[in-house]
Input
Amino acid sequence: MGPLELKPGRGFDVRPHPHIGLATVTYLFDGAVFHRDSVGSALAVEPGSVNWMTAGRGIVHSERSTPAGRAAGGRMFGLQSWVALPKAHEETAPAFAHHPAATLPVVEGEGASVRLIAGAQFGARAPVATLSDMFYAHVTLQPGARLVLLADHAERAAFAVEGTIAVDGEAHAPGRLLVFAPGRAITFAAGLVPVRVMLLGGEPMDGPRHIWWNFVSSSPERIEQAKADWQAGRFLPVPDETEFIPLPA
Output
C-alpha cells in the first residue's frame, strides 16, 4: 500500500470483499486504515500495530481511510501479507485480532531494530497467535549496521521495503522479494543510507495452495464454492456497510 501522498479531503476506500482459507496481516509504516468486518470488528490499524484477520471458512471486510486521515491527508505506506492456513484450519471460524504497537517486542542493538510481528526470532516472541510455525519481522538498519538471520526455519525470505540492502554482500534494490535456500545463516547490511526490510519464514505448508482473487484453498472445488457463495450473497455482511466489490468476471 503506497507509498503515496493523499491530499486533504481525499482518502481511499476498499469496499467490502470476501476471503477464505487464509489470514490477512495488515502492517503500516505511515498513515492509518479503518477496518470493518463481518464478525463485528471496527477499528483503525496504525503504524507499528498489527491487524490479524483469520478468514477460515469465510469473512468479509472493508478497508478505508480513517475520518481524520481523510480530512488531513498525508503519507500512506504499508503492507498486507497473506498467510495460508494449514488444511486442518482452512475451515475454522473466522476471527479478528488487533495488537497495538506497544504489545509487540522490539529488539535493538548496534544500529539494528527489529519489531517482531508474529512468531519467534532474535530471542523474542510476539503475542500474535498463529496457526502454523512461522515468523514475521519489521527490521530497520542504520547506515553500516548488520543483522544475521539464522537458519532455524526451512523457509525464509526478505522483502526490501526502503533503501538498498546488501544480502551476503550482494546489493538488492527495494521492492524485491528475496527467497533464501535453507541450511545457512544470512547476513544483511545497510550501506550509506538507512534500510527497511521485512523478514519472514516458517515451516513448509502441508501441500500446495490455489489462489483465485481473494480466495485461498488446498481445494480448487472449495474456491468454486466460495465464488458461487459471494455471487449469491451467502457471505455474512459487514455491519454499517452497503457497498461491496462484485465477483470479477
Observations:
- The chain has two domains: 4-92+207-231, 103-130+133-202.
- The helical segments are 67-72, 220-231.
